[in-house]
Specification:
The chain has a domain at about 300-425: UbiD C-terminal domain-like, CATH 3.40.1670. With about 450 residues, it is α+β, with helices and mostly antiparallel strands. The strands form five sheets. Strands 5, 6, 7, 8, 9, 10, 11, 14, 15 and 18 form a ten-stranded antiparallel beta sheet that branches. The protein has 14 helices and 24 strands. The relative contact order is 0.12. The mean pLDDT is about 95. A hairpin with a 6-residue loop joins strand 12 and strand 13. The radius of gyration is 23 Å and the shape is globular. Bound molecules: flavin mononucleotide. Flavin mononucleotide binds near residues 146, 151 and 291.
Length: about 450
């Protein structure tokens, strides 16, 4: 893919015939999301006729694993190394004097609901949410730029809430310290990014302390083009579509939620920081970026966790691949394939994944002849290579993810690991898979059946 940010993605998708266009009039409340949900958020759709706005909306962009690989010019096999390299060797951005994202500058009398076609997604959501917005701030201690996709509730006028989860302790701490010091936080929200910036934003700032833009540069293999914001001391991608610039005043917070989250259940109401949006900059023909809030769009988060889990496993196990599965919202379930060399490899792999991620509830470890992206193959491994009395690991009452209701109800989470690897040793022959000799993967059905 040539170029940077959403515009380049859309150009590429269009050329490849992978962008669907919806020119029928859609309501931003529920109707637009219903179209994206129909495609499980795996199909990029450009809505050109959104009721109440002249701004088109692009959604369903980054929910398909293969499409993300394609856009990032990588493969399933290579992507883990690519991500690990970007974290290990960040690059440097460049700065532009002027930028497409600042073709239009709106100040004063900001009314977000009137200015942007922000969708409302599910029945009991408290209102419209900017779901794909990438929140940007500068860490007051390190001076590094931190970004993260965070759900943003749109209130009256220029007021929005930024949801900061416990997974971002340094931002929570910074907000607390700024309240004590009576210091205003300058911040921005980016709309219209590409998968490189999305992936970079999912690299935990607490774990690595890296500047997101520098990780992005390493991932994309060229400098990210940035431009200075108009009203705050931050830089944002020059080729994005829309930027909301604003501030969080000391102690400013209000009620946020409910909102249907990752696994399709509602989160409860709670207090969340309030950002006042003072300036909106955009392209003249800006496109609004949206993701229907469901698990598919959390793929980017899971992809970073896969790379981290792979790195942790690699120190003691011959690991082949890790999949944070779609059914587990890319957070709660992990499948690991290994080349088993010692009897304890399967159990150690389970402990490594569970020990590294509080969100993971269930892990399945399989041999490297099992396709961990195929749920049927995983079930087949469980059916044929697993004995519960010795291959099951159960841990009671650990930490869990607040994004699934059973944790919420119990206040703790049980963990379970399935070692579905074949035993090493003499019985190995029993596990030999049947094959039709000479008619393997390259088998061509068209030779026999024409239509
Ligand atoms: C679609 C999507 C929505 C997300 N929503 C939130 C959110 O509302 N609040 C939050 O704290 N993290 C959210 N996350 C996760 C953060 O973006 C992610 O944990 C990020 O690495 C946190 O950045 P930090 O480590 O710099 O704090 C979301 C991620 C995705 C992909």
């Amino acid at each position: 893919m040539k170029g940077q940010m959403l515009r380049a993605v859309l150009r590429y998708l269009e050329r490849q015939g992978k962008l669907k266009k919806c020119s029928a009039k859609v309501e931003p409340q529920f109707e637009l999301g219903a179209v994206l949900s129909y495609y499980n958020n795996e199909q990029p759709v450009l809505f050109t006729n959104v009721a109440g706005s002249r701004i088109p909306v692009a959604g369903g962009l980054y929910g398909n694993r293969d499409l993300i690989y394609e856009l990032m010019e990588t493969t399933c096999e290579e992507r883990i190394l690519k991500l690990m390299n970007a974290i290990a060797r960040p690059g440097k951005p460049v700065f532009a004097e002027s930028a497409p994202v600042q073709e239009q500058v709106d100040t004063g009398n900001i009314d977000i609901k009137k200015m942007l076609p922000v969708p409302t997604s599910n029945e009991y959501d408290s209102g419209p949410f900017i779901t794909a917005g990438m929140f940007v701030y500068r860490d007051i201690e390190t001076g590094k730029i931190q970004t993260a996709v965070r759900r943003i509730q749109v209130n009256k006028g220029n007021s929005v809430n930024i949801l900061v989860s416990p997974a971002s302790p340094s931002l929570l701490e910074m907000i607390k310290r700024c309240k004590e010091m009576q210091k205003t936080i300058e911040c921005a929200v980016i709309l219209g990014y590409d998968p490189y910036l999305l992936l970079a934003s999912q690299v935990s700032s607490d774990k690595y302390g890296l500047d997101t833009y520098e990780v992005d540069c390493a991932l994309r293999g060229e400098p990210l083009e940035l431009v200075k914001c108009k009203s705050v001391g931050l830089e944002v991608p020059a080729h994005a579509e829309i930027i909301l610039e604003g501030t969080i005043k000391p102690g400013a917070e209000s009620i946020e939620g409910p909102f249907a989250e990752l696994m399709g259940y509602y989160s409860t109401k709670g207090m969340a920081p309030v950002m006042e949006v003072n300036v909106i900059t955009s392209r003249k023909d800006a496109i609004y970026q949206h993701c229907f809030p469901c698990k598919e769009e959390h793929l980017a988060y899971g992809m970073i966790k896969e790379a981290e889990a792979y790195a942790a496993l690699r120190s003691h196990i011959d690991v082949k691949d890790v999949n944070f599965t779609i059914g587990g919202g890319f957070r709660l379930h992990a499948a690991v394939s290994i080349h088993k060399r010692a009897a304890g490899d399967g159990k150690s792999a389970i402990l490594t994944v569970l020990g590294n991620y509080k969100d993971v509830k269930h892990v399945i470890v399989v041999d490297d002849d099992v396709d961990i992206y195929d749920a049927l193959e995983l079930e087949g491994a469980l059916a044929s290579r697993f004995q519960a009395s010795k291959d099951l690991v159960v841990i009671k009452g650990a930490l869990g993810s607040a994004l699934e209701p059973s944790y919420f109800e119990n206040g703790s989470s049980d963990k379970m690991g399935f070692d579905a690897t074949k035993p090493l040793g003499t019985t190995l022959k029993n596990y030999e898979r049947a094959v039709i000799p000479g008619y393997g993967q390259s088998f061509d059905i068209h030779k026999y059946i024409q239509d």
